[in-house]
Amino acid sequence: MFVARKRILFIVAMALTLCGLATATPQGLPQELQPLWDSMTLEEKVGQMIMVYMSPPDFVIENNLGGVLVMGAHLSTRNQLQKNLKNIASRAKIPLLVTIDQEGGHVNRIRSLDRKWEKAPSAKEMREMAPEKIERTAREIGATLKKTGINLNLAPAIDPPSDINGRETFMELHGRSWGGIENIEKARAFVKGMKASGIISAAKHFPGYDSETNSDLQMAESDATENKIRENVAPFKALAPDAPVIMMSSVRYTKISDAPAVFEPKIVKMAHDIDDDIVVLTDDLWGTNLRAWISGPEAPLPNPYPASEFKKVVKAALDAGNDMFMTTYPTKAVDMKNTLLELARQSDDYLVRIEKSVARILKMKFRAGLLTSH
Length: 374
Prior knowledge:
Layout: H1 2-18, H2 34-39, H3 42-47, E1 50-53, H4 57-62, E2 67-69, H5 72-75, H6 78-91, E3 97-100, H7 123-126, H8 131-148, E4 152-153, H9 170-173, H10 184-196, E5 200-206, E6 221-222, H11 226-239, E7 245-248, E8 252-253, H12 265-274, E9 279-284, H13 288-295, H14 307-320, E10 324-327, H15 330-346, H16 348-367
Parallel strand pairs: 1-2, 1-10, 2-3, 3-4, 4-5, 5-7, 6-8, 7-9, 9-10
C-alpha cells in the first residue's frame, strides 16, 4: 500500500509539472497577483517579456505580448491607433505596456498630435528650467500621451554629457542628455510630471551612453573605466524610486567586456543590483549592430538574416539577465517567443530565470495601477 501511495504521489507530481503548475511562486509576488500568476500558461508568461512595434490587434492577442511600441507614424493616424489599442485592451488578459520614446527636441513623437508640441523642449533645454516648470511641462506632455492610450515613456535619457576623455557624447551633441548626477532633481521633476499624468518612465541608456557614436547604426564603443561607469550609474540609482524600468545601452564598454552592454551579464547585473524589482528592457534586438556582433563583426551581415542567428541574439539577451525584449520587426516577436519557450522547456534553470523576469514585469504593472482588475 505504501508503494502504491508513493506511485500515486509521483504521478500527481509529474502531471502538475507537465501542466506547468508545479513551478514555485516567485519571491515577493504580491498576494493580489497570486490568482493571475496561477492562471497563466507558460506561453502567456513568455509573451509578457516581449515588446513589439505596434501591430494588428489579432497578432498582439494571439501572441500574448506584454507591450507595444508606438512611433510617430502611428500618431499621424491617432484615431486608428486608439481604435486598435481599445480593441487590444478589451481582449488582453493582461494589460499591455503601450510605449513611446517621447524625449522632446530631436525625439519628438507627438508633434503631429498637437501644434502646441511642434517644438517640445529637449532634455538639454529642460535642464535649464526650474524643476517646477519641468514637472508642469512633463505633466502636460504626459496628459497628451495618456489621452492617446500610452502608459510608458522611454525617457529620460540620464546619460553623461561627456565621455571619459572629455568629449561630448552622442546624447549631449543631440540635446538628449539630462546631464550627470548634478541634474538628477531636474530629471526627477520630468519623471514626476509624467507620473502625475499616469505615465511610467524608463531611465536610459544604462550604464550611461559614454560614446560619440550612434549605436543604432554601428557598434559604438566606450573606453570608460569601471570607476567612470559607476559614476555614470549614479543617476540611475538616484532615480530608481521613481522610474521602475531601465533601458539598456547597446554600447560596448571595452574595459569591462567585448560584448555590447545589453549582452553583458556583469553590466545587466549592475542594473538589477540597484533594485531587484527594476524591469530591465533591451533596445531593439533587431538592431543591425547587435545582429552583426552575434554573427561576427568581421563578416558581412547575412541577408536574409538566418532564424538560427536571431535565436542566438535572443538567448544572449536572456543569458545577460534582461527582463523584457524589444523588436521593431513584428514577425521576429514570434521568433523571440518560440526561442524563450524552447529554452524554458529544455531547462529548469531557464524556466526559473524567465519566471523571475515575468514576475518583475507583473509587479511593475501592478504598482503602476495597470492590473487593478486582477
